[in-house]
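Below: protein 1.
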Amino acid sequence: MITAPQLPFDRPNILEIAPLYAVLRRQAPVVPVRTPVGDPAWLVTRYAEARELFGDSRLGRSHPEPENAAMITEAAILNGPSGSYETEQEEHARLRALLVPAFSAKRMRLLGDHVGELVDGCLDDLVAARDADGVADLHAHLSFPLPVLVICELLGVPYSDREYFSGLSERVAAIRSGGDAATAMAEFRAYTGRLAATKRAQPGEDVMTDLVRAQEADPSFGEEELTRIAAGLLFAGHETTVGRIDLGVLLLLTDPARRDAFVADVEGRLHGTVEEVLRLSAPGGLGLLRYAHDDIEIGGVTIRRGDAVMISTDSANRDTDAFDAPEEFDPTRRPNPHVSFGYGGYFCIGASLARTELSTVFARLFTRLPGLRLAVSPDELDVRSDQITGGVRALPVTW
């Protein structure tokens, strides 16, 4: 009897995904695996099936029988089913209607100049932080603070609380937490509940105020749902972008010719560079979780009602059936229909925000510091392999 492989698969380094994904793509588009805690799940490895399942209404984040659901990790994010099976579609529609305007591409373009000011401030701090050897931590002074500054402003969260909710985020996302992740999530939701109470007394022009007003207009929008949404927005709004900035810089700095080509034509190569960073950077490595609400026939297998499905965007983005020379970093790639933000009705509402931040960071960073280079070997980086969001804890650079 062949034992199903267990996630997460071993990977050679932070810039590459596990070689096993290529093997599995050749074997079948949908394969049985075990989750990090040992439960059974289906892993989607190919691009066509990933797109198809992202758009399939028979998959959801809730579970028809939550008590029988396969569990993924011990984290409080990407651990198991979320939301109510009976009301998931209704809640999702309400959430999209509420949040899409706040994170629209138009609003993000208007935000662009301000993000530029924030990036310049972070770069000032980075330059000032250089030690006697000329080394500074780009993660601590740019990759981390910039997304936090932006999401704090959008949500109406005090930036002075950043160390507190960042610490909670770290605990919430621990793959193996021994129960502490659930405790941290309870603290996280209590924190967002206090923020909501503040916005009821002192409303602002921010997403937290929007959530409070939506709750006032709809009595069925309870406190539990509000705090869950707010905590999720605050977590995802900074954690995921932090990792993309770090890995994007690494993708450029680990290939001097690639960096030099970008520096020589920042404006012309910016869009393509950002899209390749999004396609190839894979900080986490687990995939996006769904549960089957009905039986689904796909890729030669039957996914049964209630089965867990892990859709690997990292593997799909390297599928030779969808991308020419998919392992190559090619900023001239057209089109580049990667699925890093998902696809269809659950397409990430923060996509425009992430693109705005990445574009602004890369343009200003390499214009101001064109000679930027790593101060350590990539093998010496401290990788956050214990976190579902992955990434690195520090990124020493010099110039």
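Below: protein 2.
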Amino acid sequence: MSDKYDVIVIGAGPGGYVAAIKAAQLGLKTACIESWTDKEGKNRLGGTCLNVGCIPSKALLEISHKYEEASHDFAEQGIIAKEVGFDIAKMMKRKEGIVDQLTGGIGGLFKSNGVTPIYGHGKLLANRNVEVTDKDGKKKTYEAENVIIATGSRPIQIPPAPFDGTHIVDSEGALEFTEVPKRLGVIGAGVIGLELGSVWARLGAEVTVLEAVDTFLPVVDQQVAKDALKQFQKQGLNVVLGARMTGAEVKRKLVNVTYEDSKGKQEAKFDKLIVAVGRRPYTDNLLSEDSGVKLDERGFIFVDDNCKTEAPGVWAVGDVVRGPMLAHKASEEGVMVAERIAGHKPQVNYDCIPNVIYTSPEVAWVGKTEQEMKAEGEEYNVGTFPFAANGRAMAANAASGMVKIIADAKTDRIVGFHVVGPQASEIVAQGVIAMEFGSSAEDLALTCFAHPTLSESVHEAALGVAGGAIHIANRRKKK
């Protein structure tokens, strides 16, 4: 078989494997390079998301949520569940089983679509040549008409709290605990920190989340963020804002943490410390000096709006380029690039990429926040509806949170859609579809929603934009 391809993809995460499959479906001879190996040294497809990110974390979130429900919420619903317990080893085994199934599934998809997997570390050379170094250190060079870089990202390590893999860990290590820590510290109250903190808090850990900024979830609409924070605090998450880490030292199997907040210097002791302060693009030994690909000032690969680098025929997608570090954003970019290589002209609508925090309640949003609208001086109308007034949410014993819709005051076009509450990750898709099709709030208000459903809260919030909600008192309009 020739070592020349129409498309070579470096990285088999959600951006890379999707790009490879789409390229092959479009009739392009495609290969996908991946260096990931498991603990036994076996090659693994799927990247961070499937192996140590989105999927295993959601498995543990679901399991711990069910345990939390059985332990604390069943009784008030008339279900008697005596001596509810859990088995950490079985939880981890189930998580690994899901990961195995999905990563193996990608191999099957590659085979059925004609994608050639190449295992090893890929490095882009000049003129779209790609050098692959396998596990044994052997090198081989492949040639391509087009190269798609999809190498993803890795956790950021901060000097005050270097990882030791046992007591001070990153998000990957936090998915591998063999027992519930009595006291758990989490550095960073972002998506990853809140999700991982929630898992172990539900299983009995005393969790303290230290966040450097003074605002909780500053990228989230603040009405929604404040509602979420109240729910997390009720669940026992101790969220400390404005806490700047100054040091972490392991002594006698405990992590001694020092930080500064508005009250001055503080100390805390934890059995485990998770550092979840963000991720950085993975470009280690990725580009030769003459590859023609440039990095921006933050270390991301520089690309245009269509994910094209400055090197002819070289593209980059996902966490390694600008924009939110989200698996679904990476996949959409991968599809767009494959289509463009094949001669089509699609674009990613970056205004319609949803964000989700898979805590309980879930937090999800798409588009602009109320704070952004105010900062831009735009006139807008808002409709909100609480799940406390939703029959299906009450029946499900999950009546916290709300749906919030923001619409342009002049056009009534929906510009922001925010949810905190049950199944927010699913409900937000309704907002994404509405915004993708340029829907007005009135369009949603005139749509018939099934009863009883959680989605009726979307209907009521849309009605509320114009002050016409049915099942809750409307705000009086200012005269």
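The domain at 4-155+280-348 is CATH 3.50.50.60 (FAD/NAD(P)-binding domain).
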